[in-house]
Specification:
With 176 residues, this protein is α+β, with helices and mostly antiparallel strands. It is built from four helices and eight strands. The strands form two sheets. It has a six-stranded antiparallel β-sheet with strand order 4-1-5-8-6-7. Strands 2-3 form a two-stranded antiparallel ribbon.
Length: 176
Amino acid sequence: MVGYVYAPGAVRQPWQDTELVPERFVTISGCLTDPVLTEEDFRPWHRERLNDPPKATVEYAVLMTDDDRAELVEQHAALAPSAAAWFPWSQPTQGTIEILGYDVIGIESWLSAVHSWLCHSYEAAALADLGVRIGGNGLFASFEHAEAVRRWIGDRPDDQAPEPAFWTAVAIATLR
């Protein structure tokens, strides 16, 4: 378990491939939506937003592998000790979860922003190179597909690489 976020549904952008990206889809990317974290945050303005989450949002649970979680905590604890408490790193989910699918996200230093591989419109190249594509909800059906895209992103030449971030494959789930 990594944490919880509120995020509105994303709407396909004009620069995204209409054949590969659904008109409406699930993501926690700040570039494509305006997510609101639901656990303790080190920025006071953010806490105010938590008391009154935006309308038309869904609370998602975000899960990543134990190895990625440990690496993320280690990297960000060194940058900002208070940032390490931003997500409930070891807190189990409350109730049951339903995994909707898998995404590839990039978490910027200081945990200041979350990106998605879809922010970079990699969908056509990933389909051509890897033979993988997202489903009707904008997520991969398997962790293996998301992880393959994460590795593929890491191998992009500098002129095609995404912004520096901690790129990881995650499960996106709803709470029941």
